[in-house]
Amino acid sequence: MCRSKFGFTAMMVLALLAGGPLLSPAVADTLYTAGFTGPTAPDWNLSGSASLTGTGAVDPLNNGWLRLTPSTGTQAGAALCTTPISSSAGIQVTFQYNIWDCSNPPADGITLDIINANHAPTKPGATGGAIGYAQNTSTAGIVGGMLGIALDTYGNFSDYNEGRDGVSGLHPDTVSIRGPGDGTDHFTTAGASGTLDNYPELALSSKLPEGALVSNAAATVRPAEYGTCTINFDMSDIADGNAWVGVKLTGPNGNTYTPITSFNAGPALFNYFGAGKVPTDFDLAFTGGTGGDNEYNEVRYLGVSNSVPDASFISAPEPGLLPAALALLGLGGLCLCARRQPIYCSLKN
What we know:
By secondary structure, the chain is mostly beta strands. The protein has helices at 15-18, 266-273, 322-329, and strands spanning 7-9, 27-34, 44-48, 51-52, 66-69, 76-81, 85-86, 90-100, 109-116, 145-152, 174-178, 188-191, 194-197, 201-204, 227-234, 244-250, 256-264, 281-289, 296-306, 333-338, 341-347.
């Protein structure tokens, strides 16, 4: 494990968006880092199809990736962190990803999972569209799952299919969020507020352009290009039932997108855990999956900090202000998401 004191600097937000003066930049202390470039990953348990490539056999020693799945069918791999991260304000997570050597179509993707630290999962969830986080009709979802945020190439993570709640049909090249689950293959679960969907579909972005998720579908050697994903999970207002999630990507194509902005996962967490009982101690996990189609799913260079204000993750402005504000800020894209459908989605290269 490596710890350092670098931080992430927040962008300034225009008064047009904030409804007031510019916000001052904020800096977050780093809570945890992991490279995944070498032959071992202290504090991490690998299971399923997950492996480290920087052993000198696959990649040069100490110059590898965490490979969640090989480019073969019906795989699920997980890397499960054994060091809890405590932050009542929430966390911001950044990592690099590389998806390549894909079937046509590519499948299935990568998830960053926020796990209740009171649980200790030892294996991934189901293969295919569950992407190692959620369940299917014969395989349990990951134990202790609070949120699974997916880079979904095939579009099955959000689908109402395979024993999971969701939206109708495939939505390839999207970012999707599923909520808490009980570590079983059941369609429903008992939550604090009653019977709930197990690992429910919570948010779905609009379709991302080519090159936002997949580096090079035809490559048989890992491409030099890769993407960077930042996920902000803001729990500073959880006492009032709010837990804001935002996702920013810089794709392998070099363009920046914000496919999920200011999605409120708080109600789903309140319904499952109960008011005042939403965990603030987290374990993190990466999971990946393939099904009938396949791809290499790889990540490296994880950084975790406290959640901080950022122009990509602010509370939703009035829809009428969005076009002018986006043009003025030069943001790559925006999707304000609610359960089952986006309120407003825009993408700009």
